[in-house]
Amino acid sequence: MESHNITLIPGDGIGPELTDATRRVLEATGVKFNWDIVHAGTDVMAEYGTPLPQHVLDSIRKNKVALKGPITTPVGSGFRSVNVALRKELELYCCLRPCKSYAGTPTLYNDVDIVVVRENMEDLYAGIEFEKGSADAGRLISFLGELGANVRPDSGISIKPLSEFGCRRIVRFAFEYARANKRRKVTAVHKANIMKFSDGLFLAISRELAQSYHEIEFEDRIVDNMTMQLVKKPQQFDVLVCPNLYGDIISDLCAGLVGGLGVAPGANLGDGIALFEPTHGSAPKYKGMNKANPMAMMLSGVLMLRHINETAAADKVEKAIAAVIADGQNVTYDLKRDGEQCNAIGTAQVADAIIDVMHKMP
């Protein structure tokens, strides 16, 4: 049996607990892993002087696949975000966030199966910012004034770049993902009615590329209307392709539709490198309490299994997770209905329950 070389980053806060639970579930499938365990985040600052040591990046580049727990970005570290730094260093241009409802999840919605395809490198997350009162902000405001744009001198400024290259790459990924996974529709999310030269470019390229995928329905939605439509009838949507900022917001909204961030997996994908992680953060106040829901990270592991062509194992883990949620007994507090939280179990016990279900499967 083939053994897979995987970089494993436990993270910090609740990360190590979630990682241990997920690792046990993945290994229970019988798939063989060679885990290259490396550490990043607040816990390595004292030793390396950075939350993202070079050897972490080297390991991911070598193995091409990584599974990561949530990471805290230390205050004053020089990083806006360790996660953003990983995406930029490794050119992980696509953030893939499936949001799927499972029977038994405490939510108002049923039969939701939405995949958010978020551009990761551009937009307002590009980090092109100018602090109020800085010399650079002053020069930019003066230049904008020469172009006829009246910007107050006491402004902080963030630049929103969307390139043709970046738009084509992410929109093409969305359509190729839809084709490969037999999805029925792609919806481009934008604000092109107002931002005509940035979101307008994104929309124009989306419409152009849609012509090459005749078997897939295409539509576009203005982002504010999109949020309203998601709350009214999320079942009408399938694959959503979004610029960076809208994708971040929309993916959390979609997670809320299916039960919360505890069941929201994620993947950051580039050309030849894939990093899998839960959508939620590190929740340091719950560190060591055996309380957090590990299913988002486990479902990220399911995405990883599919990526490395271990489809049968992926299906087995997902079915076991779905069975545990449907049963409703062996779940953490966030998946209990109101008044039942006192019967919630811990992180490690959820893993035990899922493994038990897997062992009983044919």
Helix segment count? 12
Question: Roughly how much helix do the residues carry, as a percent range?
Answer: 25-40%
Give the H and E element order: EHEHHEHEEEHEHEHEHEHEEHHH
What is the mean predicted local confidence, pLDDT?
A: 95
Low-confidence stretches: none
Strand order of the largest sheet: 2-1-3-12-11-4-5-10-8-9
- Portion of residues in beta strands equals 15-25%
Radius of gyration: 21 Å
Quaternary structure type: single chain
Instruction: Give the termini distance in whole angstroms.
Output: 20 Å
Report the major sheet: 10 strands, mixed
**Number of extended strands:** 12
Question: What structural class do you assign from the helix and strand content?
Answer: alpha/beta
Shape: globular
Name a few traits of the molecule.
globular, 40% helix, ten-stranded mixed sheet, alpha/beta, 362 residues, 12 strands
Describe the structure.
β11 and β12 (274-278) form a beta hairpin. The chain is built from twelve helices and twelve strands. The protein is globular. The chain has helices at 15-27, 45-48, 54-63, 82-89, 135-146, 164-180, 199-210, 223-232, 244-257, 295-307, 311-327, 347-359, and strands at residues 3-9, 32-37, 65-68, 94-100, 113-119, 129-130, 157-158, 185-190, 217-222, 239-242, 265-269, 274-278. α8 runs parallel beside α9. The model has no long low-confidence stretch (mean pLDDT 95). The relative contact order is 0.17. The protein has a ten-stranded mixed sheet with strand order 2-1-3-12-11-4-5-10-8-9, with helices on both faces. Strands 6-7 form a two-stranded antiparallel ribbon.
